[in-house]
């Protein structure tokens, strides 16, 4: 067992820019690695990560933790944050997770994903109409991907997309809250205020739907609550916030990462332009090649052995999805972007009981966005090679993605 976290520095600027060489060394040298800085086992082989995701004794917990020696008032805020975010279905275990997931899935039945295609296409076109009317360059992340993602999820939930910059502020702070230990009193205060604001906003939305049910997802969840009385009020509000938050973050980076991959691989970009029917396969390859959620965390519920290593109950385990999706044992030439790759059993949406509820929506968004961007911006190119990647092992994406485009006829 390796003990020196200096052997594989996953928190260096080089690792944030390109973690795959380090993942490769870990996978070949110490595939089950005790990382002292994280106080966690780190898994980099596909089979080990998949086993972790499937293993019912690998428990999910909220990663949010706080210092203990703080004033009583601060402790109350910490407890409120931990309890509210801890009700997210992604942090629940069976049997409650099973019930809550079933209830949320019933709510999703209020909408039919494939029926959303015309409206999602219209949202993409409307954004590009505005962007192309105002110039020949944009930041894909904040000018297109973010407003696209938040508008889609807002419409699905039945909330005004005009509030998207409010949702953006919430999302950015929730991202900070969702990465582990928080010892900044100012950030704790901000997150406490965001939870109050979100609960107030979403409570009004739920009350309106109880008076006038519609065809949106919020109405579907209200129906589930009223029919079964098994979805508690706090669970409903908390998971509405999760849907709003999760629907932005992963989609935003899926689009950014996929487009960046295409622009860096002009042969694949040209192939997709000439063969738009490849888009479903291509989206799966984008998700494998640069997974926007490259880390899954679990806690061992009992002593167990994984990857030949004995793990004690209560230890943290980091399944590096980004590393698993580049494992040559499962993906020939894993560092090569191949939009014709089949089969492609990547783990970008997880696996097992915690498989992503929004996977079908994310796939549809990708299948619409990439052909639309390539069709409408045929001369799209990177505005710079100097890109800054999110400084988190749990999020894979660039902070900005400047591009330049020139329309036909110019």
Walk me through the structure.
The chain has one domain: Cytochrome P450 (Cytochrome p450). Helix content is 52%, strand content 9%. The chain contains 15 helices and ten strands. The chain has helices spanning 13-17, 20-29, 46-54, 72-86, 96-108, 117-133, 140-157, 164-177, 185-211, 217-228, 233-264, 266-274, 279-289, 321-324, 359-376; strands spanning 32-35, 40-43, 58-59, 137-139, 295-300, 304-306, 309-311, 316-320, 381-382, 402-404. The strands form three sheets. It has a five-stranded mixed β-sheet, sandwiched between helices. α9 (185-211) packs across α10 (217-228) and α13 (279-289) crosses α15 (359-376). The longest helix is centred in the middle third of the chain and has 32 residues, at 233-264. Belongs to the cytochrome P450 family. This is Cytochrome P450.
């Amino acid at each position: 067992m390796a003990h020196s976290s200096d052997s594989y520095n996953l928190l260096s600027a080089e690792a944030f820019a390109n973690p795959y060489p380090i993942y490769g060394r870990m996978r070949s040298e110490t595939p089950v690695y005790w990382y002292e800085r994280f106080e966690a086992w780190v898994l980099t082989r596909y089979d080990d990560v998949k086993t972790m995701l499937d293993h019912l004794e690998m428990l999910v917990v909220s990663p949010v933790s706080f210092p203990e020696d703080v004033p009583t008032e601060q402790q109350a805020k910490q407890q409120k944050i931990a309890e509210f975010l801890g009700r997210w279905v992604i942090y629940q275990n069976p049997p409650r997770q099973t019930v809550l997931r079933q209830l949320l899935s019933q709510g999703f039945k209020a909408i039919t994903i494939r029926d959303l295609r015309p409206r999602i296409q219209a949202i993409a076109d409307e954004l590009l109409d505005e962007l192309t009317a105002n110039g020949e360059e944009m930041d894909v992340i904040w000018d297109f991907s973010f407003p696209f993602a938040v508008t889609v999820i807002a419409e699905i939930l039945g909330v005004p997309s005009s509030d998207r910059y409010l949702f953006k502020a919430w999302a950015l702070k929730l991202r900070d809250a969702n990465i582990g230990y928080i010892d900044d009193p100012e950030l704790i205060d901000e997150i406490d205020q965001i939870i109050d604001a979100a609960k107030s906003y979403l409570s009004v939305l739920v009350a309106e739907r109880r008076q006038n049910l519609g065809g949106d997802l919020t109405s579907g969840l209200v129906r589930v609550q009223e029919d079964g009385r098994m979805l508690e009020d706090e669970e409903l509000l908390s998971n509405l916030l999760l849907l709003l938050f999760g629907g932005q973050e992963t989609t935003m980076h899926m689009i950014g990462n996929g487009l960046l991959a295409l622009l860096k691989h002009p042969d694949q970009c040209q192939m997709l332009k000439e063969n738009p029917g490849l888009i479903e396969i291509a989206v799966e390859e984008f998700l494998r090649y640069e997974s926007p959620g490259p880390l899954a965390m679990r806690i061992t519920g009992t002593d167990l052995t994984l990857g030949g290593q004995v793990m004690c109950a209560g230890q943290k385990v980091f399944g590096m999805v980004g590393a698993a999706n580049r494992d040559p044992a499962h993906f020939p030439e894993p560092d090569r972007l191949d939009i014709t790759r089949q089969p492609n059993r990547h783990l970008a949406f997880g696996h097992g009981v915690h498989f992503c509820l929004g996977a079908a929506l994310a796939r549809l968004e990708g299948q619409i966005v990439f052909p639309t961007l390539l069709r409408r911006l045929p001369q799209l190119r990177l505005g710079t090679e100097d890109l800054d990647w999110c400084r988190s092992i749990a999020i894979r994406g660039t902070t900005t993605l400047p591009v330049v485009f020139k329309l036909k006829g110019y």
